[in-house]
Design a protein that fits this description.
This protein has 14 helices and 9 strands. With about 425 residues, it is an alpha/beta fold. Strands 1, 2, 3, 4, 5, 6, 7, 8 and 9 form a 9-stranded mixed beta sheet that branches. Strand 1, helix 1 and strand 2 form a beta-alpha-beta unit.
Length: about 425
Amino acid sequence: MAVKKIAIACQGGGTHAAFTWGVLTEILETKKTWDAKPGSGDTIDITAISGTSAGALCALATWYGLAPNAADSGCGNVDKAIERLNFLWTTFAATTPIEAWLNMTMGKLLEMKEKGVPLPTSNPYGVTGEIALTGLSMLGARPEFISFPALLDALCPGFAEVDWSALATANRRMIAGAIEVFSGNFEIFDSNKTLEEKGLRPAYARYNQYEMLRWRMRRALSLEGVAASGTLPELLRAQKIENLVFPTGTPGQTITRDGYYWDGLYSQNPPVSQFLEACDTDEKPDEIWVVRINPQEIDYEIRYYSLEDIRDRENDLAGNLSLNQELDHIVLVNELIAKHRDKNPYFADLKTVEVRTIKMERETVWSLQRTSKFDRHPDHLERLRTEGQAVARKWLSDWRAKGKDFQSYPIDAHYPDIG
């Protein structure tokens, strides 16, 4: 029996990420079952999880449950991770009368807009938005429903008491991706960076990010950072994080200012390459499992009749662009290792990392629309969760049964019979 080190990358895609809720729940439940029967076959150790937007929320819930916590002895295990995932999505769902009304009304308005009905646009920086939120709160909308910060505070009530010393040896990493609006930096909020800043992990010495302009930054993991990952600019004001250090165009010079962040869709959806950076070979995962929400392919019979249809497909493509580039690079390195391992000592020291895809059923992903990414009706979320569990259950059974013959990326990112 082998224990495989697994890193899980969770794509964003609005409430379609309820599918990821089901996938992660099934992975955790299956791990618990496998661990209870040692010797029955290969098993897994979840060493890292990343996410963007709603995928980052799923990743955070899982990581928080698995992370040791000085104030909550219930943390640090699979059961707590599952409980936090369930809490996230049942809390995020529209459950009060005013929330159900708002969800229904927004859905109707989005459908009308898709059909070309001219509707006024909203400005997240206008005063009307603040007035509307106040009114919704007075009518019974929960803070967790209308505010990312409130949702994350409820999801991780003991975030300040995470036992970082224990986490340094537990090997549980969390990464959320976002983009900083003014610099254009691809940024990640990384629990390993937190460990480095606390002196619990050696600093990544490849280069000093504060002295060299690379358009990429690593920040310590924070709830603000995860909120930044899900900040859609057309709906929410940019997430502000105060007093951050940025490099400048002058070597060795930095500036300190507030950072302003938008959704990670514009950077990495989700972060993957960081799983293979800043760590020794033994720390790298054996496999990376990507939970894909945005369809790579669509039915060629589908025709685009409106600007909203085009924008929906643009969103799919944008969500997959950076992901595919990162995954293709990993595949290329794997090929180079296989080709040159016996001839070049450099390649002999590198590790082959298998990449695999978990995705929705074809009929489901093609039936979903841009409007359904904003649907918070409990039934909609439950349908996607149920499918996620069913897909992951079969996927995990095949992974264990087929071993090295189990399909991997890029083949497994395709749907059969699609050209």
